[in-house]
Amino acid sequence: MYEGDIASVLISEEQIRARTAELAEDIAKRYPTGAPEGDLLLIGVLKGAVFFMTDFARALPIPSQMEFMAVSSYGSSTSSSGVVRILKDLDKDIAGRHVLIVEDIIDSGLTLSWLMRNLKTRNPASLEVVTLLRKPDAVKIDVDVRDVGFDIPNEFVVGYGLDYAERYRDLPYIGTLDPEVYGG
Ligand code: 5GP
Ligand code: MG
Ligand code: MG
User: Fold this and answer.
1) How far is the CA of 4 from the centre of ligand 1 (A)?
2) Does residue 176 belong to any structural domain of this protein?
3) CATH number of the domain enclosing 109
4) How far is the CA of 60 from the CAs of 1, 54, 121, 147, in angstroms?
5) Nearest to 44 by CA among 124, 129, 126, 171
6) How many domains does the chain have?
7) Is 107 a catalytic residue?
8) Which DSSP string do the residues of 97-142 spell out, in sequence order?
């Protein structure tokens, strides 16, 4: 599939599966089941985080519920500006709930830092983040991200939810794109 467009496989399907299981086991230990706050509430950011979100939820050994948000950060297709607009908001109130944001990738961290501030104003019982991927620039941000699947080099990646112009999300692995695809 997508023959010739993918320069290399950075993280294989099996590596993603194994790391997701580890993260789910670790994270579950921090959330007591049967708490008065209810089940852990996963918030996924459309569309990139969908694949990780559904695999992560199935790997979690505790009950969880799912909500989705869609945001658009102004900027080019390969970098974000930090100016964020909500395209689809949560359907439910998160006040008093234990919330875990499930992210695909943190690059500049601008999208996440905006999202954290926004969700905090809704008074959840707790607010944490798990991200599958993190790029080096993310060290500059103020958001404390405890759970990271993989730290990756500063390269544009696609697959497992991540797109270039809406393509390649359906690849089961994370790969780097041949620069020729985006005219590099
Ligand atoms: P940030 O605000 O942290 O710079 O960027 C977050 C968003 O930018 C991600 O949710 C993703 O949509 C997009 N993004 C950042 N780096 C990459 C990348 O390497 N590949 C793809 N496909 N999207 C990226
Ligand atoms: Mg994202
Ligand atoms: Mg994208």
Assistant:
1) 22
2) no
3) 3.40.50.2020
4) 30, 10, 27, 14
5) 129
6) 1
7) yes
8) -EEEEEEEEESSSHHHHHHHHHHHTT--SEEEEEEEEE-GGGGGSS
Q: Per the domain annotation, does 18 fall within a domain?
A: yes
Angle, CA 178 vertex, CA 173 and CA 179 arms, to 5°: 135
Both structure tokens of 39: 């089940």
Pocket test for ligand 1, best of 87, 133, 162, 166 (most atoms within 8 A of CB): 162
What does pTM read for this prediction? 0.93
Q: Is residue 7 part of a domain?
A: no
CA atoms within a 13 Å half-sphere pointing along the CA-CB vector of 83:
4
| Residue 141: per-residue pLDDT | 78
Q: pLDDT tens, 108-132?
A: 888 899 999 999 999 999 999 999 9
Residue 3 falls within a domain, yes or no? no
Assigned token pair, 47? 């569309």
Q: What is the ipTM of this complex?
A: 0.95
**CA–CA dist 92, 22 (Å, integer):** 29
Alpha-carbon distance of 89 to 91, in angstroms, equals 6
Strand pairing partners for 17?
A: none
Domain limits at 43? Answer: 13-74+81-154
Give dist(CA 29, CA 60) in Å, integer. Answer: 10
Which of the residues 107, 137, 142, 170 is marked catalytic? Answer: 107
